[in-house]
Specification:
The protein has a two-stranded antiparallel ribbon with strand order 1-2. The N terminus is likely disordered. The protein contains six helices and two strands. By secondary structure, the chain is mainly α.
Length: 148
């Protein structure tokens, strides 16, 4: 009978320990997710994606400026590494980048930037002027571009 009590106590202790471990596992992701902002609030990541988007738009509309594809690929890879280092999974990063609402938000920001810089979709040379300016400044946008 006594051995049954020990087995029962050990079984109870196992369940208590398992419950505590399970509770800790559930609590850990919630607390780390709560401490981590949404990717749209990660300024460095968003500014990097913005620079790539503007550089691409300049490349697409200016016939005398091209992209530095290898540099752009490396830059995007570094942004992904930074997001991973911040605790985001590849699935979270891809979901953010592919999200239509986030794309629309980035597009609106880009269009406002281009308009503020005097760029018009009706005037390809305005894209060229902005591209040359960004290249001259060696801005993040400029280092992703090169004159043909």
């Amino acid at each position: 009978m006594r051995s049954c009590g020990v087995i029962s106590l050990t079984t109870t202790a196992r369940f208590a320990l398992a419950g505590a471990v399970f509770a800790a596992c559930l609590a850990a992701p919630v607390s780390s997710a709560a401490a981590r902002p949404h990717l749209r609030e990660a300024t460095e990541i968003n500014n990097g994606l913005f620079a790539v988007a503007i550089a691409r738009e300049i490349k697409d509309y200016c016939p005398t400026i091209n992209a530095r594809y290898f540099r752009a690929f490396n830059f995007l890879s570094s942004l992904k590494r930074k997001a991973r280092d911040m605790g985001y999974s590849d699935a979270e990063i891809e979901a953010y980048v592919d999200n239509d609402e986030e794309k629309a938000r980035l597009r609106a920001r880009g269009e406002a930037y281009l308009a503020a810089k005097g760029v018009s979709y009706d005037d390809p040379q305005s894209f060229c002027a902005l591209g040359r300016e960004e290249i001259q400044k060696s801005s993040q946008i400029g280092v992703l571009l090169r004159a043909k």
